[in-house]
Structures are given as structure tokens and as C-alpha cells.
# Entry
Amino acid sequence: MFYRAGIIMGAALTLAAAAQAETKNYSKAVQQNCNKDYKAYCGEYGLESNALRDCMDRNGGKLAKACVNALVADGHVSQAEVDRRRKAAGR
# Structure
């Protein structure tokens, strides 16, 4: 089931500003839960790149709930940002 809230990646990518200054490796949970989303929406971008973060942000509403949850748990995006985007999207 997909989580439609321009959320996560937006969320995950709101981290883009912090990610520019510091690269953070992806946990096993993020790798496992976001693999299909990465391939479906952003596979042309290199891992750990700002372009990938931007792409995931643009596609945040299409990301699987498990991916969003893994990104939150891994610190790539805050739950507050996810909630803000959900509310803005009317979800």
C-alpha cells in the first residue's frame, strides 16, 4: 500500500540541506523497504546523491508506508515533517 503524502521523500529529502553538509549511509531497513520505490521513481540517480534526495522528495506521496517509516526511523526525515506533509495533502 502506498502512502500518499508528498511526505517522506519530501520528508526524506527535507534532509537535503543537512545531507549536503554530511552524507549519511542508509540502514538495512531503508535499503529493504525503499528498494522498490527507488527503482520505480529514482533509479537513475546515484545513491547518497542530492539528486536522489530531490527525486524522492518529489515522489514522496507515492512512497510505500514502510519506506516512509524506515526513513523516519533512520533519521532521514522527521515524523513532524511527514505529519506536516500529510496534513497539507489532506490526509
About this structure: The chain has one domain: 8-88. Residues 14-23 have pLDDT under 50 and may be disordered. The radius of gyration is 11 Å. Helices lie at 8-14, 16-21, 28-42, 50-58, 65-73, 79-88.
